Amino acid sequence: MKTGFKLNNLHSHFVLDEARSPVARFRLLSKGINDNTRLLESDRIVGDSACLACGNCIDNCPVVRLNVGRVFIQNQRTSMALENIVEEECRRCYRCVNACPQVNKSLKEYTLGFRRVEKIVHLIAALVIISLAATGVTHSHYSETLGAMEGGVLKYGHRAIGIFSIIIPYLYYRYDICHFRRTLKKIFTWGSQDLDWLRNTYAHIFRAQQDKKILRHEFNPAQKFWYLFVLSVFPILYLSGWSSILFGAADNDILLLKSKMVHMLFALSFDLMLFTHVYIKYVREWSKNIYQQYKNYRVTKSFVFKN
């Protein structure tokens, strides 16, 4: 039993780290519908490991919602259809696995914890970056209109958050070294697939008649550039920030002004890239979903989606 469980986990680990929809393979690793999950009315079901075409994985996949909208045709609500729609754009959210009625509960629990550290570190990094941007911009532009206490809180709070951000890569390395190494390997590996992505993206933006779309697969060139940008800009922000503190303490106004200008210039570029990242990842999808709701309402006069 222990050997089988270990082998099962090894297979699961490989499947979950691949940018492909994992639900069909997880279903095959599971027991399918069994006495613990079978409804009394379904006793005559045979071929328990086959896809039931229930559509749960289709309904829960964010890539399906973004690319094709809602799927109502029954023979298109299968795990195979999901793989064909998603292809390499899988976001490794594992919602399909957790929605499948044939995947064992133990494997669902395994997927929930598989990227837990990665997600927590990403959340901490996002909160730190937003806090740095908010305190930095407010202190730089509105410190004269604020009181001495508020200005001091912003000033030293900005520095404290900056110091705290240093431990973020360590947390990722210390508690999830496997995915830490995987991320570094991915962002520093470039090939023909990246060139194809750039060509298709250029055609999508400037040559719409070619019917090319922007693929949002994991570690595409835009995502790699974002990671590389963060890795390169943060050290410059650290150095220029500490230089401003040291030159300010030494009353060297010329070097203080130069270090502040460098810090603000790269901070501005970082804020613009952060806005672009948030827009592409969240705002664009929300806008598209709202537009789909609006189109459905114009046709059906209802907010309930119908076939």
Keywords:
single chain; 307 residues; mainly alpha; Fumarate Reductase Cytochrome B subunit; 14 helices; elongated; disordered N terminus
Short structural summary:
With 307 residues, this protein is mainly alpha-helical. Helices cover 69% and strands 0% of the residues. It has helices at 2-16, 23-29, 56-60, 62-67, 79-86, 95-99, 105-114, 116-142, 148-164, 167-175, 177-187, 192-206, 221-249, 253-300.
Question: Can you give the helix content as a percent range?
Answer: 55-70%
The overall strand count is: 0
Secondary-structure element series = HHHHHHHHHHHHHH
Mean pLDDT: 84
User: How much β-strand is present in the residues?
Assistant: under 5%
**Head-to-tail CA distance between termini:** 46 Å
Overall tally of structural domains? 2
CATH class of the largest domain: Mainly Alpha
Under CATH, the homologous superfamily of the largest domain reads Transmembrane di-heme cytochromes, Chain C
- The CATH topology of the largest domain turns out to be Fumarate Reductase Cytochrome B subunit
Structural class: mainly alpha
The Cα radius of gyration reads: 25 Å
Reported for the largest beta sheet, the result is:
none
Q: Count of helical segments?
A: 14
- CATH-derived architecture of the largest domain: Up-down Bundle
Low-pLDDT ranges:
1-7
Inertia-based shape: elongated
